[in-house]
Design a protein that fits this description.
Layout (H helix, E strand, L loop, with lengths): L14 H4 L10 H16 L7 E4 L12 H16 L4 E3 L5 H6 L14 H7 L2 E10 L2 E10 L13 E4 H4 L1 E2 L3 H15 L4 E10 L7 H25 L6 E4 L12 E11 L2 E9 L6 E8 L31 E7 L5 E8 L3 E6 L14 E6 L20 E5 L2 E9 L5 E11 L11 E6 L2 E7 L6 E8 L2 E3 L9 E7 L7 E3 L1 E2 L10 E6 L2 E5 L7 E2 L2 E3 L5 E3 L1 H5 L6 E7 L5 E7 L3 H11 L3 H7 L3
Parallel strand pairs: 1-2, 1-3, 7-8, 7-9
Antiparallel strand pairs: 3-4, 4-5, 6-19, 9-10, 10-11, 12-18, 13-17, 14-16, 14-18, 15-17, 19-20, 20-21, 21-23, 22-32, 23-24, 25-28, 26-27, 26-31, 29-30, 31-32
Helix pairs in contact: 2-3, 3-10, 7-8, 10-11
Length: 601
Amino acid sequence: MATLWLVAASPAVTAAQTQTFPGYNPQDPIGSAAQALWQRIEKQCGPLKLPVRIGTASRPQPENAFSRDQGNNVMQQVHAAFSRLDGVRMAPFLDIGPVLNINDTGILDSALAGNAKEQLSKIEIEIRATGQRIGPSTRLLLSAHGWNGYESCSPSLDPFTVSEEFIGEIYRRTENVFDEVAEAIWEQSTETSNTLALSAHMLNGAPVNPGWLEFFSDRMRRALSKQADEEKKSRIRAPRHVSFAMLHDPSSDEARRWSASVSIEQRHNGYRIAVSANRKDTTPVFSGGLVAFDDLPTATQWAALGSSSSRTAASAPRLTETPLRIEGRVEGSRGLQQYAFSIPRESYVEVDIPLPSVRGPGADKKLLVEVFAPGHPPLRTIHIPNQSRPNLRRYRLGPGQYTIRVANAGPTRQEYQLRARAVDTSDMLLPEAPGRLIRRFQNWYASVVEDAATGKRTCYAYTAATEAGPTNWREQAPFILLSAESEGSGAIQHLLDDKRYYRQGAAIEATVSEGGEVRPLNASAPGNFIRPMKEGSNGQPILDMDAVAGYNKGTTLELNGTTPDGRPAHVVYSLQGYRAAVNAMSLECGRRDLANALVWK
């Protein structure tokens, strides 16, 4: 049975740990490991009777080592890597350990067990994976264990490094990251009085916004205070104390001084932060993870306009692809707020007030959002209306300074969060996550929206196009979106693209690439979206579940059509991470039926 351990460890890796097997490819770590292990199987376990039936578990043990969807993702990749090898026939995903444990009870002989016992009897070699977390990476080890005539077959590989991108990155709250660091610091602070100083840096060398350093310092103070409160409650040892200091006193005892550092790396949908702390003669402490844009304060101050004298270029923040955010408020039916911004070159600009951010008595959640050029009427929006985002506006603007105006549509006070971003017209805006991001698996993301009143959840798996043309075809990158609701067993919603970007009536072809071969995919465009559809028994179009499940074997999905002005259009999506994201989406909403239909089929 595959087993993975999660342990506290230093980001540093010893020289022995960095050794790896011949042919190791960091861009395809699990695929290259499968090839290397198969070569050892052929060498040590021969003569082989081809094809050899290989089995892998559907999830690792213990389950608390990684989240369940991360464990599924690891074993999916192991399973897929071996299925691509010549001379191999794969058994279906099975929970091998639990099945073996109840084999002697007779339960496997019942009709309810299906063909699990038959499948187990055919497995000749089982592939196991064990691992250890080291900082933001994971060390994995693959090993083979022979069954049914291959009992003496047990080769294995040296451990190899797999980045979090392949395991499945978890979006975390910043306070959780600092809480973990503070707890570990407290455990290792044996003296009564200790100090901790914090610094921060961007991995790309850019300066860190002073507001962020203040934000991180506040999070660390709170985390240390929480540990102090726990210490007082427990009273099981001599009291200790770790105080936060902006700068270390060089004359203080070096053995009592902790130095902590926060590193920040910007990603498409947020930031990766890593917090490390060390003290003389002490094992370094580490915690980190992805955080969404909304979990860090806006890097630029963005205030409502006052008198006309404040409308200067210096007071107007520059928009970039990272959303600027501000909390605002309008009072009564004549409430009005204005915000200046600038862009250095022609850009697609997106302005929005998300519905969940609008608060106030009787708020209808719809506000009047417009963009003005100085001395001109409201500019023309290129946004295609979206009922779920009624306050969203998009524009194509030349370089210069502009003003956003927010007006109240009703008689009551309304509070809101205004968001704005921009990207050069040579590129495209990447779609923002629907709801709260929970996972990233290679090129795919999983997210969730929860209704605070009912508790009902809607879960999503999505990816943006890796390639789309022609140039200047559209302002936002195309994306695939799958969604499902937590209640009942409703059908999954599946969108391949917005058909309004294509010429009406022109053919749209969809294909999936599988190991160098191209397979056509049924696609039609009922309503406003292109979907993978087929004809149902009643003659009406229905979602083609077989086609969607077929993504499992593919590497890319491509759409080809015609733009409204007659140019050839194409969109390419990566399918790397699809299985894991759909599995995470299904688990988040308690819809195992969807995972069974789309992932394990």
